[in-house]
Amino acid sequence: MEQPVLLTIENQTAIITLNRPERRNSINQALLSGLYDSIEKISQDNNIRAAVITGNGKSFCSGIDLDAIMVENLFDPRGDGTDLPDIFGACKKPIIGAINGHAITGGFEIALNCDFLIASENASFADTHAKVGIHPGWGMTQLLQRAVGRLRARQMSFTCQFISAQTAYDWGLVNEVVVPDMLLDRAKKLANQICAVNQDMLGAVKKLIDHRDTTTLDDAFSHERQGFQTFVKKHLNK
After folding, report:
1. Taking the mean position of all CA atoms in its chain, how far away is CA 179?
2. Domain at 5-195, CATH class
3. Cα 173 from Cα 194, distance rounded (Å)
4. pLDDT, tens digit, for every residue of 126-177?
5. Is residue 174 within 8 Å of 119, Cβ to Cβ?
6. Residue 28 near residue 65 (C-beta atoms within 8 A)
7. What residue ranges do the domains of the chain occupy?
8. CA 182 to CA 197: how far, in whole Å?
9. Three-class SS string for the chain?
10. Do 191 and 50 contact (CB within 8 A), yes or no?
11. CB 107 within 8 A of CB 60
12. Whole-structure pTM over 0.70, yes or no?
């Protein structure tokens, strides 16, 4: 039986592939467990500096497998109390979402929890929580409005309609749109560029950017300046 999530390492980059193509990579307990395990392995491996998440087949992830609802444990898939935002939030390595096809609802939330996204021309995005009657819980209502703005987030979440890769680019949801055959190569190239920078400073910059989500602009600006002053004092004393 095929593993629902594949993890491969190329140099210092990890490639996570959602691997239920016959179900459009829909989310069941085994896929969630495999995804969580893969991200934790990346977090713990000092040789890995960046990661890419993509899907096998024509979809990135079509959301929760309706056959798994009320049958499988999707809220605590490993029985350890950790949930999807916890796993992503604990990972200090940059994660690039390489969106190869549909990213729908829970699958869209997986994408939104990545550090940034690039998309195939075949990609599309939809939040259908209101259509299928499932309460969002992995960050949709907060992360989507951060990415595209509140008014566009309302449009997507209220209408439950798809937007194309080009619209996602125009709205600032994805950084780049590439031809399908180039998607993974482009994601790997970006990951390699991340691997080549000063890793200590990369970690500091990532942490500073993420800090903005939990505070005001004034506080975040002050926090950055304090860090800079500490950095200067440390290096001047050498």
Report:
1. 20
2. alpha beta
3. 20
4. 999 999 999 999 999 999 999 999 999 999 999 999 999 999 999 999 999 9
5. yes
6. yes
7. 5-195, 199-236
8. 23
9. CCCCEEEEEECCEEEEEECCHHHCCCECHHHHHHHHHHHHHHHHCCCCCEEEEEECCCEEECCECCCCCCCCCCCCCCCCCCCHHHHHHHCCCCEEEEECCEEECHHHHHHHCCCEEEEECCCEEECCHHHHCCCCCCCHHHHHHHHHCHHHHHHHHHHCCCEEHHHHHHCCCCCEEECHHHHHHHHHHHHHHHHCCCHHHHHHHHHHHHHHHHCCHHHHHHHHHHHHHHHHHHHHCC
10. yes
11. yes
12. yes
Over residues 21-49, the pLDDT tens digits come to 999 999 999 999 999 999 999 999 999 99
Cβ atoms within 10 Å, residue 213: 10
CB 118 within 8 A of CB 75: no
- The token duo for 33 is 């467990």
Give pLDDT tens digits for 91-111. 999 999 999 999 999 999 999
Nearest one of 165, 161, 163, 154 to 123, comparing CA atoms: 165
Contact 13, 192 (CB under 8 A): yes
Tokens of 9: 């390492």
Tokens of 100: 């190869």
